[in-house]
Amino acid sequence: MRKRYFAVPALIASATLTLVGCATPASTGSGAAIKIVTTTTQVADLTRAVVGDAPDVSLTQLIQPNESAHSYDPSVADLTALASADVLVINGVGLEEWLDDAIDASGFTGVTIDASSDVTVLGSARGTDQAGESAGHTDGDPHIWTDVRNAETIVKTVEAGLAGAEGASASNVALFAANAAAYSATLASLDGWIRDNIDAVPAAERLLVSNHDAIGYYTTAYGITYVGAVIPSFDDNAEPSAAAIDTLVTDIRATGVQAVFSEASLSPKTADTIAKEANVKVYSGDDALYVDSLGPPGSAGDTYLKAQIHNTTLILESWGATPAALPADLR
Predict the structure, then answer these.
(1) For the stretch 146-169, what's the b/e string if a residue is b when 16 or more beta carbons lie within 10 angstroms of its beta carbon?
(2) Which helix H or strand E contains 78, and what residues bound it?
């Protein structure tokens, strides 16, 4: 793990007066009975679904849309929020490599909810022979949210953790449970829609190439053959070697892959180069996938539900399939 050094608690304390009243849009109050800090965009969105409009609860999201969770560098404002938090909700599986240093620097002493605690963690989608290229994440693939059933598990974990938090009133505990149940039902509907649509495509045609090795839970859950990644690593900051690029182009040609998918939070340059060399379509810009990060407000991927629908729709279209209409609870 790369060591980072952040602002010391004394600096955080001196900055507090400046920061009071300057909370980010992700924060919903400073006098709440339960102050929650979340790390990634996905974890924040799933936690919001559980919290809903519960009174006396604030939620601050550290990582903003299109920021990398792998190389995130917390600000003084982030460390200040963490210092006063009662609950910290993390993705886990080593995704937040900067987290231990941030906790030490902030002096956080609250409860941590690890979203991955009840999730079965997978290795590389590209096979064990290439797993060494993802050597920064020895615990396995941290992109657990790409399988919707894992999202259902995360919601249950968050709900249980918040229900046990100090300061959680009986009425809020009941509200957390009701919100989690309602949202889990919507997730089940989403999972069914994805599964039905993908199952309708012949297995031999379900081929996928993405920008980096971050969609393995999705391909495993829904029976998709993952041909390869532009960046053959769990870390979106890694760089592909010339040999890796040549191998991917060869695999694309050999398997009949029709498209290469970029990600909304990453530069499409290398994906575009590979697609051109392999003579296939590249999906980028508004047609990029939302994987490592959800999108900014107003985008096609600004919530977990919308991101999964967006991604699945584009993947189906790349196979020449027309997605079925969305269930009423997903429209």
Answers:
(1) bbbebbbbbbebbbbbbbebeebe
(2) helix 76-83
Give the integer Cα–Cα distance in Å for 111 and 219.
33
Task: For the domain covering 202-330, report its CATH number.
Answer: 3.40.50.1980
Q: Select from 16, 18, 17 the least CA-distant residue to 84.
A: 16
Tens digit of pLDDT for each residue in 215-250? 999 999 999 999 999 987 776 667 788 998 999 999
The CATH code belonging to domain 9-189 is 3.40.50.1980
Residue 56 gets the label, from left (phi > 0), alpha (psi -120 to 50) or beta, of left
For 175-196, the DSSP string reads HHHHHHHHHHHHHHHHHHHHHH
Nearest CA-CA partner of 221 in 108, 279, 144, 127: 144
Angstrom distance (rounded) from CA 285 to CA 297: 16
Task: Kindly report whether the global pTM for this prediction surpasses the value 0.85.
Answer: yes
pLDDT of residue 26: 41
